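Supplementary Methods, section 5.1.

A reviewer requested that the exact input to the structure prediction be made available. We therefore reproduce it here, unchanged from the version used in the analyses.
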Amino acid sequence: MAQYDDCIIFLLAKAYQKAHGNFKRHLLPHGLTPVQHLILESLWGEEGRSAGEIGKRLVLDNATLSGILDRMTEKGWIVKEPDEEDKRFIRAYLTDMARELKPLLVEKRKLANDEILSGLNLGEKVLLKRLLRDVQG
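The structure derived from this sequence is encoded token-by-token as follows.
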């Protein structure tokens, strides 16, 4: 066994590649990336979040998030509007398309999760999620 086969950084990176690729495959027909889907999930929870709030929740820097929000606006997923009280802040709102496709896209996420975790029993799935949250800090 190579030394990197026991390296947690390598193992996490390979698991991420597999999970990300799987999810990406499910979202591709809808023209979404996994990060864009996470932004939609955030807005399905509460519309009108500021770009800063979204970035903080998803741990995305402002420059990265700004470009992603621009692409989502161009594709018709969200509308960006200035904050009513402070025009320096941008708030993101879902379009009708994003609202209508929510059930399908949530199902796609669940399917991708199920596929990735298919080799684990319920106890292992719960443990894996707990350990990953612990590693995040």
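Residues 8-27 form the longest helix (20 residues). These observations are discussed further in the main text.
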